[in-house]
Design goal:
6 copies of one chain form a homohexamer. Chain A has about 70 residues and is mainly β. Chain A is built from 1 helix and 6 strands. Chain A is about 10% helix and about 60% strand. Chain A starts with a strand and ends with a strand. In chain A, about 55% of the residues are buried. Chains A and D meet through strand 1 and strand 6 of A and strand 1 and strand 6 of D.
Chain lengths: ~70, ~70, ~70, ~70, ~70, ~70
């Protein structure tokens, strides 16, 4: 399968908490070598992002899509 | 700083490609131990997600927010 | 009303499940002729997307905004 | 493959427009019978959503993920 | 019109920058009294969020949907 | 801290409602002068967006990320 997304992380399910409508699933990361972000060129310039910069990548859990073979 | 998000990945900028409005930034992952996903309880049940399952996490680059100290 | 979004689907509410904070609403589709996706040009090339390709469009329920006249 | 998402639409690529960083892809819908939305229970009540209501579903193109077998 | 979203800000277009595929639009805020955020209960507890806390709300521009009457 | 996002709103927590998995937090806005939206150039043209237009900005609560110093 090919996905229209730049980030694929291999992971193993650690815990599942089922709520009435939404559920929270935790994973141990198996492999995550490279990540990609798309943002406005304005934001890149306001941050002064350059190769070598150490940063944090913040991702809301709601934007993470699990796929199971 | 405390963020209202469950996923924080430490990473280093590898490349920056600035377009006319949007930019694509690539990162080498320094540390990503645990990830979390929120989805409907229906989806969890349709997938039969259980601890130990190996899965892939797909994340569109647009949903990745870089933060720089 | 004009919306800053490329996808509009006409639909009828089939069921409503109200949870403590979030609710899940199901719809029967009345009309959905065309859809649009924005992704990185890199992803389009990695997928080799071309006119005529049959694909699946995956959309998390959280990204679907109901509007009622 | 099983996806942690409630909406799957079968579609055929109609056009591809590649920009410098982002691309816009248009699809003809082959099949889209049912859709689902997650929103706050507060929003459901403010809208007075009930079975039978005809509504529009608005989805930004950026939230549509193409998957190709 | 009723929207399945908790945040509505009245604003006036200040500038429009059209790129090849994506565009960046800036607005002057006319009215924004209240905002709402949905996050995991875990995140709320990790942040120790309580009434009276002063915080920042970060929103990627891609998640802002303009609607024109 | 510098964020890869165009919108920052200063606000004060008004109420916190914790559900089993997700929580809804309400804020009083302290300061929100300017907002930005990214959408397709096609959408901008379909809407005929021009400086001076009064519009509404709709944002699902799930896309609002609180950050606390």
């Amino acid at each position: 399968m090919k996905y229209g997304a730049r980030n694929t992380i291999k992971a193993k399910v650690k815990s599942v908490k089922k709520g009435d409508v939404m559920a929270l699933v935790k994973f141990d990361v198996i492999q995550a070598d490279e990540m990609a972000s798309v943002l406005t060129t304005e934001s890149v310039e306001a941050m002064g992002l350059q190769p070598g910069d150490e940063i944090q990548l913040i991702i809301k859990a709601i934007h993470v899509l699990p796929v199971k073979a």
